[in-house]
Automatic annotation (TrEMBL):
Protein's UniProt keywords contain Ribonucleoprotein: no
Assigned keywords, A-Z: Membrane, Transmembrane, Transmembrane helix
Native organism taxonomy: Eukaryota, Fungi, Dikarya, Ascomycota, Pezizomycotina
Species of the source: Dendryphion nanum
Transmembrane portions of the chain: 12-32, 91-110, 131-151, 171-190, 202-224, 244-260, 293-311, 323-349
Domain of life: Eukaryota
Keyword flag Transmembrane helix: yes
Name of the protein described by the UniProt record: Uncharacterized protein
Amino acid sequence: MPPSRPPSSKLGRAFSSNLIFLVIAAVCGYYMDLPGMLAVSNTTENGFFHWGKVREPVLEQFHLLGFLDVIIRDVTAGFAPSIYQVDPVSWWQMIVFLIDVAPMYMVWLMESSRPLTRGSIARFPSIMATIAQFAGGGVFFPINYFLHLVYRPPSTSTSRDDLRVDLSDAFLWLPLSLLFNTAPTLAMYFAPTFATRHYYTWFWQLFTVRIGITYYTIVSLVKLTGFSMSGHKLNYQATLRKLFAPYIVLQTALWLYSIFNTPYPLRTVFVPGKIEADFAGTFIGLMRRLLQVDQWSVMGSSFLWLIYLMWDMSHIGLVSRKQLYSFPLLLAIFPLLGPGATFVVMWLWKERFVVPDESEKKRR
């Protein structure tokens, strides 16, 4: 559990219970078995992904920077077993796991827009998210949460207004996230041809950069027109619920579709375990285990991060001790909504205490 009060210095916060996130990252990195992955063939030699009857060409160029394509080419190889359904178990897992990334990244962006993050590394979540795409979310999501808690000033040193997210920015992030993250993810796993799936696997890479460039371009153009919109004029709670509603519906739909239609036991799909003989010791078998470990680390550290943020809010009276201790009970909706939608609902629940509904304000 977190200590009774957050340390005031960055060094103190770094050597507090926040270290649990670095432990999670280290454990995830160990069980991902990256040395084992590098020791086996990734089945993409000679410009083709080849396994059994599946033989699909691998793109060699996509971006203008050649060195970047070399890196991304190897990363896209990791998605090949699932998008081509060579490993159908992995396909069922990834349609749940990867779609959850988009709203989680939106939450990161929301958190970064709070005035209290100004001037800190917590202001730039795209840096760690981009690294996570190349090196594993299971390792770098927990590291991001650690850095966020260390460099973000504790709520005890800020005013209530400093805790609000910028709703005017949020209206840009939703369509950009749907365009550059969610749509490519769906195409990766549901497009009718393997060539299309492979193309969108490339397109999905660097979605953080695409969102960032487009966001700053639009903001710059809007400033030239002199138009501005203050998020303070909007109903805080209602706006957040509307922004995340499409994601909650989509995530829940894919979760229910997966658990009711997969021909495999849920334990086989989502829990790292013994790999069947056909894939044991192969790139495909090791990749399945890596992605399962990845998902557990990403989701586990994300839920823990929300609990730490709630605990931080309790020290300025935004959250009572009873509300803090009951917050983890929201995990009970996990079987119904799935991991990603549960994360979003818990974050929205937390925001109820940052800026209460107008009806709540009147009662106070």
